[in-house]
Amino acid sequence: MTGKIVLITGANSGIGFEAAVRIARMGAHIVMVARSRQKAETVIVSARERSGSDEFSLMLCDMSSMSGVRRLAAEVLATIPRLDVLVNNAGSVNDARHITGEGLEQTFAANYVGHFLLTQLLLPLLKASAPARIVNVSSMAHRQGTLDFDNLQFEKGGFSIMKAYGRSKLAQIVFTHELARRLAGTGVTVNSLHPGAVATRIWSHAPWFTRPVLAVAQLFMLTPEQGAERIVYLATSPEVEGETGGYYDKNKRVEPSALARDEAIAARLWEESVRLTQSVSP
Asked: Which is the catalytic residue, given 112, 165, 233, 247?
């Protein structure tokens, strides 16, 4: 990875941070994307110490903000000469339906729509840097997810923390398959993965009454270091060179849910995503 540039969203904590450290040890320059400058600057010091590398830079973005994503992409395109790997990792959950200032449901925006837009905006740079890779960090929770296009953001009701999370993670995998089809022959590959059940802070916004159960469950979860290994594999391993459109669990390509493989759903989601972000299809 020497001389390569890797951008990781949600890189200031959890599996994103650990993946950044691991890939930096391989010689790559890591662009860490985080929401808070104060916290991220402290984290970069730790990343440099852990990795033994100074090859880190910081950019700020709240991935649930489409205007913020556009600013991030503009900064990347203005300052970074190439992009070898894009890791769409940032994610969140919410115990109630929250709407962003741009009218998007918070979980769907942060976990999926923002990354859809960022990927679209960075595709010219990725194509110019080919061979390049896109890695979408999804979840096995997608198997319980649905995509009701008449109630995509639960505007007609039915919101729950796991329904919203599962829907956003299903959307990531559907997007992965459709994008792989559209990128055929460009030298840019895109794959998604389940990092495992990892003990991170993502569930800190879960309802209060679930927290005792989560506290016990975390005793049996993977560490962030273990979950990050699966990101690192798709981002760097020669074993997946040229592989695209796959969903990986424990570094093995496996079949996702039937909904995730439905071509009609993929086409419809793409149309809806373009409309929500007002972006242009490649």
From this structure: 165
Q: What six digits make up the tokens of 128?
A: 């110019």
Q: Are 276 and 103 in contact (CB under 8 A)?
A: no
Distance CA 61, CA 117 (A): 13
Confidence bin at 220 (pLDDT 50/70/90): very low
DSSP 8-state secondary structure symbol assigned to residue 113: I
Amino acid letter, 165: Y
Q: What is the DSSP letter of 223?
A: P
Candidates 249, 258, 122, 127; CA nearest to 184 is 127
Q: Which residues have CB under 8 Å from 173's CB, separation 6+?
A: 136, 138, 142, 192, 247, 256, 257, 260
Those residues whose C-beta lies under 8 Å from the C-beta of residue 106, and which sit 6 or more positions away, are 64, 92, 94, 97, 98, 99, 100
**Pair of tokens at residue 219:** 């005793």
3-state helix vs strand vs coil in the chain, percent to 5: 50, 15, 35
Given this model, what pLDDT does residue 226 score? 84
Per residue in 160-204, pLDDT (tens digit) is 999 999 999 999 999 999 999 999 999 999 999 999 655 455 555
Residue 229 phi/psi, 5° resolution?
-55, -30
Mean pLDDT of 53-72: 97
For the question of residue 233 being annotated catalytic, the response is: no
Quick check: bond before 195 cis, omega within 30?
no
How many helices (DSSP H) and strands (DSSP E) are in the chain?
A: 9, 8
Residues 6+ positions from 234 with CB-CB distance below 8 Å? 133, 135, 191, 193, 240, 248
